[in-house]
Design brief:
Layout lengths: L1 E6 L7 H16 L4 E5 L3 H6 L2 E3 L38 H11 L4 E6 L1 H12 L4 E5 L15 H22 L2 E6 L6 H9 L4 E3 L7 H13 L5 E6 L5 H4 L3 H10 L5 H13 L3 E4 L12 H20 L4 E6 L2 E6 H4 L11 H8 L7
Parallel strand pairs: 1-2, 1-4, 4-5, 5-10, 6-8, 6-9, 7-8
Antiparallel strand pairs: 2-3, 10-11
Helix pairs in contact: 1-11, 5-6, 7-10
The structure holds 6-O-phosphono-beta-D-fructofuranose.
Length: about 350
């Protein structure tokens, strides 16, 4: 059996431990009857044929290693079916199918997030035997309760908020910590709650800046001049929520500040006269060793992916629902975002203890 593997899109913690889970399981069952190939830098390596044979030693000692031993890259889905002059008019999809067939792979294991899954589904529709695993710090993949990388990123963002807390209290300042998460608020919500943020702003609950200022003023009147705001990089105001996609893009292109947090900082400073600082941990949140939770999750998902390969069941993403691993058809996953439900229990519980969502 010939199995190929690739990691695609933004990296995160747990990629190597997931590869290890797949590799160790396959070698244990098939022994010398399996050849595993590593494809370099995500779909780029499949397009250009940058493919190397691996051996069991490649999967040892990588449980705790951050990043990905295979490398990764972003290859936008919308470019996959465009004719490419450099390939004599063939598309990236054509090139990937050619290489998959040239190597006579029996299946392709794809570790990726949302964009990656659109292409994974496209490959499956063109006859590639795909099994995929959900990775991303954003936790926005449909069909799984949890993606690996998420809990590690929550730990890092929480640590940032903890550290900001001490300096914010000393100086009596308002701090905005901008948290990653692309278009969804999971990471900000979890880090905000665990870091004890006073205000959490997420895309799913558009904010009213006056309501945010009201919270800050009230805290000041109560003798708490410091406040912490956990703001998702994708947070939007109530006015922005009313705009069409096109209008929103145009409005953001005109925004003079580099991100929503800086805009908010200016708006709050104008309205309250308070001193504001912005902290952006950025890609730090995707770095380093996976936390214990992610090591377990990615190992389980890797092992589950191997189970599907052993059974010859293709066209699925492995996921975790209610604590048990499962398989979800790729067609159900591709193109869907798992967003925070504004009416979810976690939002109500956070509001009950006094956290404001500025809504
Ligand atoms: O999808 C993971 C993520 O880290 C998002 O949270 C963030 O918006 C994006 O990737 C950053 O992408 P890049 O690594 O291309 O800058």
């Amino acid at each position: 059996m010939k199995v190929a593997m690739l990691t695609s899109g933004g990296d995160c913690q747990g990629l190597n431990s997931a590869l290890r889970g797949v590799g160790k399981s396959l070698y244990k069952i098939f022994g010398k009857d399996v050849d595993i190939y590593g494809i370099r830098d995500g779909y780029r390596g499949l397009i250009y044929g940058d493919i190397r044979k691996m051996d069991p030693s490649n999967f040892s000692g990588i449980l705790t290693l951050g990043g990905t031993i295979l490398g990764t890259s972003r290859q936008p889905f919308k470019t996959m079916c465009l004719p490419m002059p450099e390939f004599g008019g063939k598309t990236k999809l054509d090139m990937m199918l050619e290489n998959y067939r040239k190597y006579k792979f029996d299946c392709l294991v794809i570790l990726g997030g949302n964009g990656t899954h659109k292409t994974a589904n496209l490959l499956a529709q063109h006859g590639v035997n795909v099994v995929s695993l959900p990775k991303t710090i954003d936790n926005d993949l449909w069909g799984t309760d949890m993606t690996f990388g998420f809990q590690s990123a929550v730990d890092i963002a929480t640590h940032v908020i903890d550290c900001i807390h001490t300096t914010a209290t000393s100086h009596g300042r308002v701090f905005i910590v901008e948290v990653m998460g692309h278009k969804v608020g999971w990471l900000t919500l979890y880090a905000g709650i665990s870091g004890g943020a006073d205000v959490i702003l997420i895309p799913e609950l558009p904010y009213d800046v006056d309501k945010v200022c009201k919270v800050l003023k009230k805290r000041k009147m109560q003798g708490k001049p410091f406040s912490i705001l956990a703001v998702a990089e994708g947070a939007i105001s109530k006015e922005e929520a009313k705009l069409s996609k096109k209008e929103f893009k145009a409005a953001r292109a005109q925004m003079k500040e580099p991100s929503v947090s800086y805009r908010l900082a200016n708006e709050i400073a104008e309205r309250t006269g308070q001193e504001i600082r912005v902290t952006i941990p950025g890609h730090f949140q995707r770095g380093g060793s996976p936390c214990a939770y992610d090591r377990v999750l990615s190992t389980r998902l890797g092992s589950k992916a191997a189970e599907l390969i052993i059974a010859g069941k293709y066209g699925y993403m492995v996921g975790i629902v209610n604590g048990e691993t499962c398989k979800v058809p790729l067609g159900d996953v591709a193109g869907k975002l798992k967003m925070v439900d504004p009416n979810a229990g976690i939002i109500k519980e956070a509001k009950r203890i006094g956290i404001s969502f500025g809504d």
